[in-house]
Amino acid sequence: xxxxxxxxxxxxxxxxxxxxxxxxxxxxxxxxxxxxxxxxxxxxxxxxxxxxxxxxxxxxxxxxxxxxxxxxxxxxxxxxxxxxxxxxxxxxxxxxxxxxxxxxxxxxxxxxxxxxxxxxxxxxxxxxxxxxxxxxxxxxxxxxxxxxxxxxxxxxxxxxxxxxxxxxxx
Length: 170
What we know:
By secondary structure, this protein is mainly α. It has one domain (about 25-170). About 55% of the residues lie in helices and about 0% in strands. The protein is built from 6 helices and 2 strands. It has helices spanning about 1-15, 35-45, 70-95, 110-125, 135-145, 155-170, and strands at about 50-55, 55-60. Strands 1-2 form a two-stranded antiparallel sheet. About 40% of the residues are buried.
C-alpha cells in the first residue's frame, strides 16, 4: 500500500516539468484588430492606399503566429463579416445598373477595391503563421469574391487593384 501511495505521489511530480511545453508567451493580437467591422470598413475606405485600423495597425498584423484561439476567432469573424458586407454592396450596386453609392459615399467600384485589399492583406498576414490561418484566408476570400465572377470588368479590375495593394501594403 505504501508503494502505491509513493508511486501515486511521485508520478505527477515527474510529469510536471513536461506539462505545457511552450515558453509561456502569449502573442497578443493588436487591440485595433478586435474592433467591430464598422471600424474595419472605415479603415478600408482608404484603399488602395495603406489601410491602418485606428490609424496604427495594418490589417496583416491582425494575424499573428501565436494568436490565442479566442482572438483568432474574433479577428476571423470580423474579417469575414467585413468581406461579406463589401461583396453585398458591390453586387447590389451592379444589379441596380450602375456604380451605386453607399452610405459612406463609396461606390460599388470602391467597395470592390476594399474587398480586394482585405483579401490581399489577410493573405499577407497569414504567410508566416505556419498555416494556422489558412481556413480563415479561404473564408474571407470566399466572402469577398461572392458574385465577383459575374461582375463587370470595372468591378473585377477594381477588386484586382485592391488585392495587389493589400498584398503590397497590407
